[in-house]
Amino acid sequence: MTEEPIYCSGCGIQIQTDDETAAGFVPRAALNHEPVLCRRCFRLKHYNEVQDVSMTADDFLKLLSQIANADALVVYLVDIFDLTGSWISGLQRFVGDNPVLLVGNKEDLLPKSTNPNKLKSWIRRSASDFGLRPVDVLLMSAEKNHGIDDVRQNIEYYREGRDVYVVGATNVGKSTFINHLIENAGEEAVITTSRFPGTTLDFIGIPLDDGSTLYDTPGIMNQAQAAHFVDPQDYKKIMPTKEIKPKVYQLNERQTLFLGGLGRIDYAGPGRRSLIVYTAGGLVIHRTKMENAASFYERQYGRLLTPPSHPVQLPVLKRYDFRTDALSSDVVFSGLGWVTVKGRGARISAWAPESIGVSLRTSVIKG
Q: Residue ranges of the CP-type G domain (predicted)?
């Protein structure tokens, strides 16, 4: 008689006892434990250690493409702080005709003076640029369990009795969000959560009261995410864990601000004006003259300008030119934060490695 397959209660992968190097491995003796956790999830849960697995981005995308054949609501989580890096390219192709509820996570990292309506408008415009038209845009903090009830109510409204698939790039907080849904319903958390990317390895189905199912899906590994171009120690420095605090600089014409070794913003003018930096505290901000900026970067990359703390080679920086037309504008460096430029008509050049998206938006800070 064939044994029924067993699935890891943490990441959803099918359990196997033969190959220690492959995903889903557990020692045979561990099959007697409830719930069953694969070795990877066990070490992640108890020791905060992350083990590499053999799944590729293509493997993840093949799993995700199954959603197009379902009749369901898709809840799409993005990282407010790293919108470009957390975007799934071609998502509409993978979800087919199913409606998409777009949820911006990590709202708790933004200053309390952030205007939520402006933030939602920016997310909606960004979605449109990527070819996605969500039925609604919501904000929440899965980490702080804030806004979860609003998201839950909207899920019930839009799903109309159908299954629900929660999708997103790695490390956007999907599993933490779903665990809050489960805990608030009186159940124990069942999904492995971590600050490290790539925790969920297969669909994890959670029965709903009306007979339908909520699925946690594998996180798609987007190479534009900040987590993929800095080492783990540096990632902790650029990714804030609490509300970010503004740093105000008065810049004269032809001055430059460096955001560690990962971003640069040149202010050409006109006049003297305020630039306000919103980044994690571990990112070193340094001011210099524009004419010295290139040579200074070559000398101080990975030294004074950190992160990175252990640079291998100098990255090629892509240039973005902007002219502000709002009273207050944000130059956004995806995964690093943003720089608010006060006043209309400022001539700005932003520089970053090509993997870091840079964009301009009307300021989301009130005032």
A: 61-223
Mention every residue, 6+ apart, whose C-beta is less than 8 A from residue 54.
Answer: 21, 22, 23
* Secondary element (H or E) of residue 136: strand 136-139
- DSSP bridge partners of 338: 278, 332
Residue percentage of the chain with pLDDT more than 90: 47
CA 324 to chain centre: 27
On the CB side of 191, CA atoms within 13 Å amount to 29
Q: Within 10 A of 25 (CB to CB), how many other CB atoms are there?
A: 20
Residue-number span of the structural domain to which 328 is assigned: 236-362
In this prediction, residues 325-351 reach a mean pLDDT of 95
Task: Give mean pLDDT, residues 43-63.
Answer: 58
Structure tokens at 262: 């990962």
Statement: residue 173 has pLDDT above 50: yes
Cβ atoms within 10 Å, residue 208: 18
d(CA 78, CA 198) in angstroms, rounded, equals: 15
Domain co-membership, 145 together with 89: yes
Report the domain count for the chain.
2
Does residue 367 lie in a domain region? no
